[in-house]
Every structure is written in structure tokens, then in C-alpha cells.
Amino acid sequence: HVVTKKPPTPSPLRNSKFFQSNMRILVTGGAGFIGSHLVDKLMENEKNEVIVADNFFTGSKDNLRKWIGHPRFELIRHDITEPLLVEVDQIYHLACPASPIFYKHNPVKTIKTNVMGTMNMLGLAKRVGARILLTSTSEVYGDPLEHPQTEEYWGNVNPIGVRSCYDEGKRVAETLMFDYHRQHGIEIRIARIFNTYGPRMNIDDGRVVSNFIAQALRGEPLTVQAPGTQTRSFCYVSDMVDGLIRLMEGENTGPINLGNPGEFTMTELAEVVKELIEPSISIKIVENTPDDPRQRKPNIAKAKQLLGWEPKITLRQGLPLMEEDFKQRLGVSKKA
Ligand code: NAD
Ligand code: UDP
Ligand code: UDP
């Protein structure tokens, strides 16, 4: 008994089942921390072909090594401030350094990536009729005067400070997205991502969770930047990837906050890392950097209602999941 598989009926319509079930997906910044986890998830679906465009400024091929050579995967070394010609159905636009020490390293380049890079990706989306998702940030709320932050809040951002290349860059990127949507009918999605952590974070990128875990494993004091009462809300990366895919596949443009509403002061975070990873470690207060937001916590009512999404992994569950990855990359075994 031979079963002959009926081939799908080719159709010229982009929205036909044929095209929808064979997705060509571009991930800009796919060699980075969140991008590489997103690629892992997208590659699980055999109907997806994934193209990553990355200039490897903060990302690395190592994050994608299991996909290199895979027939449904392609990696392009490309700087998105230059035009890019590919044929795709969806664009997850993540390319942009996310850690303050990297985005402040070459601030002009950061703003070019946000403005010219986003414009190029929108030009691409316009030419090929692709849907495009921008990973914006909670930094668009600046040092917020409303707490927790809802999507309706317009923010409190210094336009000329050392963080502005990133904060204002993302605000312009959001503006570009909505203008291409209104003027050219591009299908857009905007996620406002709050602090995210997990395996493959850059070890020395200065972000608080990666700093504390690396310090704990190296047996160094945890550096809490003064005053230590400032708060953040930390989302585990698998929850974030789930939220991004739901947003892309759903019907709402956003902006939608994606983050974990569990709020911690930096002193509390240090205490949790100390307790879970290395109880003998000390905690020291060090100098802070300018314009550090004093509090941050997402209101995720919109994500819950529109995407049926909320984070599943608590900070206490997520931190130990990073430990093994950091130990391997640091080449250290936990201090006895
Ligand atoms: P990351 O630095 O690990 O990844 C960014 C990737 O973009 C890297 O692979 C880098 O090489 C690439 N890139 C940078 N500039 C580029 C350019 N001009 N051309 C091509 N590639 C370029 O950062 P991440 O934490 O994975 O963040 C991904 C996205 O999510 C960013 O857009 C970031 O703004 C956003 N985001 C992240 C967080 C977070 O907590 N991690 C919070 C808010 C928003
Ligand atoms: N662009 C790109 N890939 C494409 C199409 C356009 O990188 O497939 C770039 C293009 O070079 C331009 C930008 O996207 O700089 C914006 O394109 P748009 O068509 O909106 O503007 P125009 O080309 O008319 O300036
Ligand atoms: N921070 C800290 N110790 C560190 C690094 C950062 O206490 O070693 C603090 C920093 O002052 C800020 C918070 O942690 O209040 C989050 O900083 P991060 O750079 O991780 O992210 P962002 O400021 O972008 O939220």
C-alpha cells in the first residue's frame, strides 16, 4: 500500500496556506543573546527557514554553532546600517547592542544601528511584504515617573545623556515602525523588552545578572552600584522568546511590554545570587553610572490579555539555569 503525498497547491497569494506554512524568517542580531535563543526555537519548527544577519559586534558564531551547516539555516555577516537584499516573510529585528557598556562604547554607531538599521529593515519589509517585529526596550520609559510602566506612558528620557544613543535610538526606531505602518501599510509588531537574563549572556558585558554570577563563580565580591535600592524586574530568556513569537504570530501591533513583573532591588538580587550560588561571597557597594533609572517594573496586563502570555520562570528558578553555562565558559568550578 503506497501513500502518495499530494503536493501543496502553489498559489501566487502571499497569505495562502502554502506560503504561511513555509516561513522564511530573517533574524537580525540572531548571533546575540536573545537572538540565538529565538533562532533555536524557530528552528524547532521544520517549516521554518531561518536567516541570521549579524555583524558580530556583541554576538558570536558560537551561539549558533549547532545550526551552522543545517539546510534550513543561513548565517550572513552583515551590518544592518547597510542595505540588505533577501526574500523573507517575517523579520525579527533585534540587531543592536543591549548592554550599556557596549552601546556607550561607540554611541554614534549605536544610534546609526537603531535609526538607519531599522529604516533598512523597514525598506526590506516594504519591498518584500514581510511582517516585521522590533525589539524595543523598557528604556524608552527612561527614568520613569509612573510605576509600574504601562504602554501608554510616554517616558522620561534625557535626550542628550550618555544613554540617549540607545533610549532615543529605540524611540526613533518605534516612530519609524509606526510611520512605515501608517504610510506604507507595513505589518509591524513592537515588543518593549524589560531586563532579560539567561545562558549565553556576554560574561563581561557589565549587566547586573551576568556580573553577579561571574563574580560569584570567580569568588569575587558582588558589586552593587549605589544606592542599591534601585529596582529591576528580570525575565528568563525562554519566557521572552515565547512572548516574542506570540507577538509576531498575533494580530496586535503593540507596543507590548514583555518582562517579568517580579521586582527586586539590586541589593536583594545580590542576596539571592549569594544564597543560591556562593554563600561565602561578600557584597560591596560601588559607584553608579549617570542616568541610572531608579525603578523599573512592567505592567504586563496587555501581554496577558492580547497574547495570553506571562512569564513562567521565577528569578530563583532561572539563576541556577545560568550557572552551568557560565561555569563552562569561565572554565571554573564552583568554589568549594
Ligand atoms: P546582544 O548584544 O547579545 O545581541 C545583539 C546582536 O546584534 C549581537 O549579535 C550583535 O552582534 C548584533 N548587532 C549589533 N549591531 C549590529 C549591526 N549594526 N548590524 C548587525 N548586527 C548587529 O543583545 P540582546 O540582549 O540579545 O538584545 C537583543 C535585542 O533585544 C536588542 O535589540 C536589545 O535592544 C533588545 N533588548 C534586550 C534587553 C535585555 O535585557 N537583554 C532588554 C531590552 C531590549
Ligand atoms: N532597503 C534594504 N533592502 C531592501 C529594500 C530597501 O535594505 O530590500 C533599504 C534601502 O536601501 C533604503 C531603506 O531600506 O535605504 C528604506 O527603503 P525605502 O524603500 O523606504 O526608502 P527609499 O529607498 O525610497 O529611500
Ligand atoms: N548594577 C549593579 N552592579 C553591577 C552592574 C549593574 O548594581 O555590577 C545595577 C545598575 O546600576 C542598574 C541595574 O544593576 O541599576 C541594572 O543594570 P544593567 O546594566 O544590568 O541594566 P539596565 O541599566 O539597562 O537596566
Layout of strands and helices, then pairs:
Blueprint: H1 17-20, E1 23-28, H2 33-44, E2 48-54, E3 73-77, E4 90-93, H3 100-105, H4 107-128, E5 131-137, H5 164-184, E6 188-193, E7 196-197, H6 208-218, E8 222-225, E9 231-233, E10 235-236, H7 237-249, E11 256-258, E12 263-265, H8 266-277, E13 283-286, H9 301-307, H10 315-330
Parallel strand pairs: 1-2, 1-4, 2-3, 4-5, 5-6, 6-11, 7-10, 8-13
Antiparallel strand pairs: 9-12
Helix pairs in contact: 2-7, 4-5, 6-8, 6-10, 8-10
Bound molecules: nicotinamide-adenine-dinucleotide (NAD) and uridine-5'-diphosphate (2 copies).
One uridine-5'-diphosphate is lined by residues 83-85, 119-120, 123-124, 126-127.
* DSSP strand tally: 13
Individual helix count: 10
For the biggest sheet, the summary is: 7 strands, parallel
Structural class: alpha/beta
Q: Describe the strand arrangement of the main beta sheet, using strand numbers.
A: 3-2-1-4-5-6-11
> How does the overall form come out from the CA principal axes?
globular
From the alpha-carbon coordinates, what is the Rg to the nearest angstrom? 20 Å
Distance from N terminus to C terminus (CA atoms, Å) equals 63 Å
Q: What's the average pLDDT? A: 93
Task: Give the distinct bound molecules.
Answer: nicotinamide-adenine-dinucleotide, uridine-5'-diphosphate
